[in-house]
Amino acid sequence: AFQMPDIDGAIFDVGCGYGPIGLSIAKTNPDRTVLMMDINERAVALSQKNAQVNGVQNVRIFVSDGLSMVGNDVNAAAILTNPPIRAGKETIFRFYDGAYDKLVSSGELWVVIQKKQGAPSTVSYLEEKFSEVDVVEKKKGYWIVRAKK
Predict the structure, then answer these.
(1) Residue 102: left (phi > 0), alpha (psi -120 to 50), or beta?
(2) C-alpha distances in angstroms, 66 versus 69, 84, 93, 97?
(3) CA 111 – CA 38 distance, rounded (Å)
(4) Quick check: 114 and 122 in contact, CB under 8 A?
(5) Where is the Methyltransferase small domain (predicted)?
(6) What is the pLDDT of residues 17-65, one digit of tens each?
(7) What are the backbone angles phi and psi of residue 83, rounded to the nearest 5°?
(8) Which residue of 37, 55, 58, 109 shows the fewest CB atoms closer than 10 Å?
């Protein structure tokens, strides 16, 4: 469902896990830098190993609580995330605010979230901040939401 925005800038995979999304985007878009981050050190180590095994070099993979370790001078054309629902709505909405600030003009936040875990409230919250919000796909209880700055 993800479509690469037609603007310059890095791609952020926040909560990258072992790296399938960020690495596949990096591999198919060698001209882009993909920043992959996760709070879990083991996940980051696995992503780094998977990048090495698959010869993906246009990535930076590091431990970060949300966007906390991303430099102030680094902005994104797109940020992708499956937010940590257990962290609570307040934490997730604060992340959305931070993501908005890290996006370049016309940059996009892509969120995968279950309907039963707050997809409707995520859409409502994003509509207050972003210029354009679309539910790109709904499948088996999951929503893919795109919010354009």
Answers:
(1) alpha
(2) 8, 10, 12, 11
(3) 15
(4) no
(5) 7-145
(6) 999 999 999 999 999 999 999 999 999 999 999 999 999 999 999 999 9
(7) -65, 150
(8) 55
